[in-house]
Each structure stands twice: as C-alpha cells, then as structure tokens.
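Journal club side-thread
Mid-discussion, someone asked how the predicted structure for our own chain would compare to the paper's figures. Pasting it here so we can look after the session.
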Amino acid sequence: MAAYFRVTTLDSARGNVIVKPARWDEHLVLGFEALDREHHLQIELVHELLDATERHDWGRAHELLDRLVDATSVHFMGEEILMRERAYPGYQAHVKEHNELMSRVTRLRVALENAKSGSSLVLIDEIRDWLSGHIDSMDRPFGRFLAEAPKSA
C-alpha cells in the first residue's frame, strides 16, 4: 500500500536512514469529522511511537502503543457498528483488514517487549503504510457509501 506521509532523512553521524511520517496529510481527509479526527489521532500516535522507538525510549513506546491500540480498537468498533447498521456490502472485507492491523500491532508489541529497535521500526513503518492505505482504499469507499446511502430507521 502506498505511504502518503513518508519523510526520509539521513543521520550521517550514525550512517542510518530515518523514515518518519508527516503529521497529517489532507489527502486522507474523508469529510466525516468523527472519522477524520480518529484517523488524525491514529497517525499522530504512530508518529510519536516511531519517534520514541528511534530514541529507544521503551517506556514511552509502550505507553504510546497502548494508546494506539485503545484508540484503534474504539475506532474499529465504531466503524463496524456503523457498517452493520447501514448494511455496508464491504463489511466482511473491511473487518478482515481491521484484523490484519491488530495482528501487526501484536507483532509490534512483542518486538517492543524485547527492545528490538530494528524490528520495531520496520513494523511501525508497515503499520503506518497500512493505515494510510486502509484510509484511502477501504475507508474512503465506506465514506462514499455513507454519503450516498439513505439513513436506516
């Protein structure tokens, strides 16, 4: 999936390439305030998690991962309830993608618990790419469906 907010810098003192997400990209706005606010929060948390992991601040990284899991779980639950209420035809595929992200987050938690910075950075990069791709390829069509479908009684 395409990364819409990748910024790469070179840490010449250490010879490392550092990949960081931009804070927010207007390309990801769906036009539904609640969903956009939640997506913005998720992206901010991923950005902060990446920063804490690069600094090897494992306590902060664990705290941010917990916040990301909580925010994402609530977001997914709200989306899935709305999809069922509106009989969204893409519900099953959408939920499958949600489960995929939570599986990646579980792998990230293990890497952070083992203080594996390299593995953690790769997983955070995957999560960031997944999130931007999911918003664009799955949430955007859902947003169009919500805008076009009549509200159920």
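Post-session note: The chain has one domain: 6-148.
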